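Figure 3 (text version): structure tokens given as input.
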């Protein structure tokens, strides 16, 4: 059995708590939830839910790249949003930026997210490591 390995990259925001950006275990990569936070400034992307959604996905892509993966390797995502009326716009951006991948997904409305974010997205991906 392989030992879980933390994955980290400077091209995604640093963890804001006692956790890793992602953990690799065997051929699975578990990406922590990503806010729409700019990795350089540490601030949420300006422009509301659309900008935050795009940045959250770009952050996930950066972590995937650090592990040698792409969006096509994503098996499942979970999307957390603070306002379900934003779902159609989030869905449109999600589809555009994750194409051609269509991983399994759950979308959950939550009362609040860290840093006052409007969206958080986590992912589980499959890698070639451990096969």
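Below: residues designed for each position.
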């Amino acid at each position: 059995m392989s030992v879980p390995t933390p994955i980290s990259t400077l091209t995604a925001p640093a963890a804001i708590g006692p956790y890793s950006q992602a953990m690799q275990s065997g051929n699975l990569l578990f990406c922590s939830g990503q806010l729409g936070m700019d990795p350089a400034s540490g601030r949420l992307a300006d422009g509301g839910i659309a900008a935050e959604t795009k940045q959250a996905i770009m952050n996930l892509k950066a972590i995937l790249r650090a592990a040698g993966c792409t969006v096509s390797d994503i098996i499942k995502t979970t999307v957390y949003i603070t306002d379900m009326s934003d779902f159609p716009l989030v869905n449109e951006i999600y589809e555009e930026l994750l194409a051609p991948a269509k991983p399994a997904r759950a979308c959950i409305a939550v009362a609040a997210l860290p840093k006052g974010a409007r969206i958080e997205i986590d992912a589980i991906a499959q890698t070639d490591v451990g096969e």
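The longest strand covers residues 28-35.
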